[in-house]
Every structure is written in C-alpha cells, then in structure tokens.
Please model this.
Amino acid sequence: MRILTLLLIVLLGLLQYRLWFGQHSIADYFRQQEELKSQQASNLELEKRNRVLRADVKDLQQGLDAIEERARNELGLIREDEVFFRMFSQSGNAKDGPAGASND
Model:
C-alpha cells in the first residue's frame, strides 16, 4: 500500500511539474495569449490600412478626378492655360527674405 501511495505521489508530482514548467505549460499558455492579443492588434491596423488602399485603388480605377488630384498633389502638374500661385505663410522672423537669398 505504501508503494502505491508513493508511486501516486511521484506521478502527481511529475504531472504537476509538466503542468507548470514543461512543454505546453500554463506559462506557455499565458505567453501565447499575449502574442495573440499583439497579433490581433497588428491585424486590425493592417486591415484599416488595406481598406484605405482598396478605396484608393477603386477611386483610381473609376474616375479621372483621383488621377488628376494625384498628379497635382504628388507631381505638381498643372493644366494647360492654368496659372499656378504658391502661397507662403509668414514665418516668425520677418527679416528673412525668399529662400536662397543672402543678406551680404
């Protein structure tokens, strides 16, 4: 009877060790849960970015307005017979002249 009790206690100890410290232990479970939360947050950000990109692609495929807007904003293109005005905001120092000018 003592041997059976001792054997059961040793078996229980081995199972407890495996539960707390072995492969697929409780610590691994919690670590996997944290990784899962992190990955889900990353996936949400990527899904949001993909929605924006899909809308951009759809807009570019459907009309010329989006293409014209991109050409104007990103490439600085203007139409024929258009006049282009560039507005500069006032900086903190009013003595500064145009960019590239020197006060020698």
Summary: Residues 26-62 form the longest helix (37 residues). The helical segments are 2-21, 26-62, 64-75. Residues 72 and 78 are 6 Å apart (CA to CA). The chain has three helices and no strands.
